[in-house]
Amino acid sequence: MLAAYRTLAWIDWPDDGMVSVFHPETGETHLLNSFAAECLAFLWENGPATSQACRTHLEDAVAKPMDDLATSVEAVLRQLKDLELVYDNQGWAPASNSDDAQARR
Fold this sequence. Notes:
The chain is an alpha+beta fold. The chain has a single domain (about 1-95), classed as Outer Surface Protein A, domain 3 (Alpha-Beta Complex), CATH 3.90.930. The protein is about 35% helix and about 20% strand. It has helices at about 35-45, 50-60, 70-80, and strands at about 1-5, 10-15, 20-25, 30-35, 85-90. Helix 1 (about 35-45) crosses helix 3. The protein is globular.
């Protein structure tokens, strides 16, 4: 299961279809396309969640059909994880992610 860090700050650029995401723990800012931003937002609002739950959400959220949605979602999740915007939630969470992180340790 994956979850998004709760400390992320977002700026939506609707005219460009892009979102800027700032991660205060790493000090990095990332520019995401609307597909990656929708995936990250789903995990931030509903996570921890499985990649299947993210795919199901994106099937409803994406306006046009995608033949390879599963592959696209898996690739985006890997990239978000590599950027340290999401993490594997296998019974633990970084202390900075949420107030209940200590309860799960």
